[in-house]
Model the fold of this input.
Amino acid sequence: MINHRPHKIEYYSNYLYILPAFLFYIIFVLYPLSDTIITSFTEWSGIGEKKWVGLENYKKNLADKKITSSIKHSFILIIFYSFFPIIIGLGIAGIMVRVKVRGIAIYRAILFLPQILSMIVVGIAWRWIYAPKGPLNSGLDFFGLDDISRAWLGSFDYALPFVGLIGTWVMFGFTMILFIAGVQKIPSELYDAAKVDGAGAFAEFFNVTLPGLKGEIIVALVFTVTLALRNFDLIYITTGGGPGTSTMIPSMFIYKKAFQMNQVGSASSLGVMLTLLIFTLISLIIITLREKNET
Amino acid sequence: MKPSDREKIIAHSIFLLGCLIVLYPFFSILFLALSEPGTRVSGFTLPTGIYFDNFIKAWTGGGFSTGLFSSFIVVVGVVGITIFCSIPAAYAFEKLNLLGVSPLFAILLVGLVLPYESLIIPLYYSMRKFGLDSSYWALILPQIGLSIPFSIFWLRSSFKSIPVALSEAAMLEGAGKIVILVKILLPQMKPAILTLTVLLFMWTWNEFLLALIMIQDADMRTAPLALSYFAGNKRYGDPAITAAAAIWVALPVLIVYIFLQRRFISGMVTGVEK
Done:
């Protein structure tokens, strides 16, 4: 803090520094957000007057099986986007507790690669891998497993988990890098103390490594859960929500309802629900993990 | 073999396996794109020769020269204006006397996790009302708004790490707030600003939903949007040409990444810790 007693005008002029940024934020984020909330209580086709319907849109959403199952799909995707990469990352970090590896910078650069690319590019690459005559099926044929091969993204049973696996692929490098970097900052005395106590590899992992990575786990959870719940680009380019509605997610419904079916009020209410879901899950993650930290 | 050697071999094997899994899809579409047009590639064998025909077909058929140009304009606008507005704001939050810093900052933090899905509907109708839909501003302005929370958050922690003594010494010599910011603090923050620039560049380059909704004019599509239309176009149904198109769109980001990755990743890892 710059610490002298400023004149009043000089003091208020400090707010000019934040003004441009806040103008952008208010006009293009806070105002649209409030408008979405208001529209969510109305019936509106995009033209004409908005008709106030109270909570009707929300009730209809919760009664609509297609929409509730799209929320269920999102939770299944969280397993693939969040749970698997974090388990993989933690397992590997646990193995690498005391190994100093040379040339780690190159590994990091490669493992981080899926993070930087457009999900449209990623989706096109995987569409090819999963294609009827793509590498996955050719590989299965090669090993004489022709019976298993199929159009993976066209299958009602397999499309959702196979889109989920793309998410695991996008995320596991990120969690690996994050957790390995975190493990190296845990004081080695803690590991020495565990060894003196006669702790095995498992006890060492659960008593030292896991608590030491709490901060990184929160970051990874917040980051991956948010992506799993949004996820529009990847679904749009790989399956478009199909076959049927087997890979539909809420953001896909928001897009379709608002811009193809002219159910703007209903789409807005779904947008509010998605936002609330993201906020609730993130708050839960932060609150539960932080509290354990204090005890 | 010493136990430490064995540990190292295990570690290297894990890293190599991870890298192999990450790289496989990239090589898979690269081989596909470089394959001889008209031949059926199984995707499980190495290519017999290198052909660039697919890249040429994709470039001319998909309008990627205009796509890359549109993306470039949007990126420059978003990154430039966002950083220009965020630096003074982060400076004021961290170094100047402001009443109500915590509530203002809390309001900004909401924007860190807010999904585009909750904003796009009113944004679309407002942009139409002001005649800005199908103009680059329809993409630039909202993305500035949503980039500002992260940028301020990022820059504020960077200001925090600069010792107070530096600016106090300059104050005693009678330097004003703006002079202190520009002459003393900003030169210290070059690495943080560079990492932020790369991050904003990638997020803006890869943004898709906003472009899908706002841009109806084929000549103004951003690169990922042009790619999605191209991939859905039956006339170019050949997966090899689509693969080549995907590589065109990924190329600029890849080039930036290859040059800056070392700084960028260490900046990310230290940034996450803050």
Q: What stands out?
A: The CA atoms of residues 26 and 32 of chain A lie 9 Å apart. Chain A touches chain B through 94 residues (CB under 8 Å). DSSP finds 15 helices and two strands in chain A. The mean pLDDT of chain A is 89.
